[in-house]
Write a sequence for this structure.
């Protein structure tokens, strides 16, 4: 951080900010390219099979959290859900954010 008598300046890397803004776009493009999102009449809808799979994974995460499973089992269930959504992640990344 730079200081100028009465002003403070914060320098940020614009490339990092731009890359962070592009992450959700890349995830949605990935889902679309995999055929997990249907585009009909200008609307985007999750395919029924993919929706069922997501619901099943979400229930798995909830049951592990409320069922007294180990932290590692909960993390594994969350990672499986994230990876299914096209959000590539691993244990190290999840540990960093938790």
């Amino acid at each position: 951080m730079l200081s100028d008598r009465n002003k403070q300046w914060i320098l940020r890397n614009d490339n990092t900010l731009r890359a962070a803004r592009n992450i959700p776009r890349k995830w949605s493009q990935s889902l679309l390219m995999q055929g997990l999102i249907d585009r009909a009449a200008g609307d985007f809808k999750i395919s029924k099979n993919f929706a069922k799979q997501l619901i099943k994974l979400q229930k798995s995460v909830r049951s592990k959290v409320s069922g007294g499973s180990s932290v590692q089992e909960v993390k594994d269930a969350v990672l499986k859900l994230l990876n299914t959504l096209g959000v590539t992640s691993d244990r190290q990344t999840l540990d960093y954010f938790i």
Q: What stands out?
A: Residues 14-33 form the longest helix (20 residues). The beta strands are 2-4, 7-9, 37-40, 43-46.
